Known about the structure:
By secondary structure, the chain is mainly alpha-helical. The chain is built from 14 helices and no strands.
Amino acid sequence: xxxxxxxxxxxxxxxxxxxxxxxxxxxxxxxxxxxxYYALERGWQLYIDALTExxxxxxxxxxxxxxxxxxxxxxxxxIALAWLLxxxxxxxxxxxxxxxxxxxxxxxVVAGLMFVLLFGANSAMGGWFESxxxxxxxxxxxxxxxxxxxxxxxxxxxxxxLMQAQGDSEEQAALILGANAxxxxxxxxxxxxxxxxxxxxxLTNARAMGEFGAVSMVSGHIRGQTNTLPLQxxxxxxxxxxxxxxxxxxxxxxxxxxxxxxQNFLDWRQAKALAAAERE
Length: 280
């Protein structure tokens, strides 16, 4: 016997809804509005000046460079790992699946410290790189490595459940019909996973541009050289340059809003695609 109506008292429903809305307003909406309010409090001109200040522009440029390197790498590695875990059985598969969640369970600060210990000047690897004129820690390479570590699971975690649910019957059919591995991937696998892949890429990009803890540990906070947007916000706030701090924070807030919109759009497209597939 199915029930098409809620059996809870109306007052309880309204209480829960009201409490949830108040919590979301207090924890999400009000802080978000406050960022833009304080960024624009002293006028558009100071806001624009804060965004176009040389150190701010360099922080933005460095953030975009790191994201431009990390996101494609994560997409490639995520697809490869999802393919490995969903299409092959091998000893240690469960252990590898567990390791995939390691960046979620390890604090970003600990991850950054790990790279400092591995590639610092006093370590074996760091000393070797230093002797060959390559600086890893307190330079762009370590910032890329740290960001890659904390964002690594996003693409794979979006693809693995979908690829497990889809199975490999279509891929096997393509191979039987004469397609080679690349043709099978581009014409069968990629179209089937494209929305989940885009979803994972968007999440990876948002986390890469907003990462603070791991990058803070390996960057060295060298002004005009190794500060990303989140690090530059911290510096400006500590110097009581609130307009500059909130102006740069507004860029990160806009990124979060854009990510949210894209997530909802992809959810809608994926649901539409699944509904179309079920009708067929």
